[in-house]
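Hi C.,

You asked whether I'd gotten around to modeling the 389-residue construct. I have! Everything is below, sequence then structure, no commentary in between.
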Amino acid sequence: MNNEMNTPQPQSTSPFDRWQSAKEWLRQNLKGDIVIWIIVALLSLTSMLIVYSATGTLAYQRGGGYPESFLFKHAFFTGIGLLVMWAVHRINYTYFSRLSRAALLISIPLLILVKVAGVTINGATRWLAIPGTGLTFQPADFARLALIANLAAMLAKRQRVQYDWQIFGKMILWVGIICFFIALTSTSTAVLLGFSCFLMLYIGRVPGKYLAVMVVSIGIAGATGLVVGQRLDTAQGRIERFLKRDEYQAKQGFIAIANGGTLGQGLGKSHQRNYLTQAYSDFIYAIIIEEYGIIGGIIIMILYAILLVRGVQNINETNRAFGGLLSAGLMLSIGLQAFTNMAVAVGIFPVTGQPLPLLSMGGTSVLFTCISLGIVLSVSRGDIEETNL
């Protein structure tokens, strides 16, 4: 009896203690800008709801399959992407400066290969098949990441050096080459990347006369790629239909937005998902507004705006120019893509085929977005021992 009385009893853990333990675990494992972590989590969770709703018609068109199959696929890639983002954010971001030039050299043959042996999806040949996996990826995503990292490294090394045409010529050369090859298969991606690079040069305090030359050079490279590539007729047709307001997808998107009103139709009650062929990708923002209303659409827009601001603010919060420029460039790229997608949905821009980062259903595109965000978080950590670049 006495032995039983002396036996220590297990101590119960209060909700407060569990909350403190969870906070400590998060503090130890999720470093960097907590606001970015929260927004990424919110957008990822929202994507599960909206992709599940938007893929109902797609499942029916593909033989009466279950929408859950697309949800599981999207959840799988999102989960892998978040794991990769967590792993990347623990890496010293200065390593990406050393890898950027090699990555650029690798990206060029990949961009050429997609032109001659790419996989065509929805009328566009932008993907390469990964042998033995059944998966595809866009070399443009890899090239964009490599170019931004390399441009940030070149700008960082010259923050205290007076610019001349020899120094600036190397920057123009790389930006022009990559934008040219991307424009062969994706005009909008080349334009957005070129604009991101221009903004990086502006933030990097490049003199105005060089910026003017950059604009002309990017324009020539992109236009040449468009003319000799595969998207000239598509681009012309989209612009003409945009000016005439005669684009089928855009019309269906407008109807979805009109149906949404202020508060929306409710989760899973979209009607236009039955008519929008890219309801789960290019026009997912229209479905968001239809189901969650203008208020939901504004909240999504605000989240992306905060994400963009937090990434650009790293310029003032890091001790190295490379880290700030890298973070700003990557977040500008993600932000421009997001706002382009939303602008297309509401009729400001012609149809571009750009997905909404973290929200649209995707595979390797989600992965590259998460890699970019992981690098931004690495820069925002502020406790990494930095090395000279």
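If it helps when you're writing up: The beta strands are 119-121, 124-130, 135-137.

Thanks,
B.
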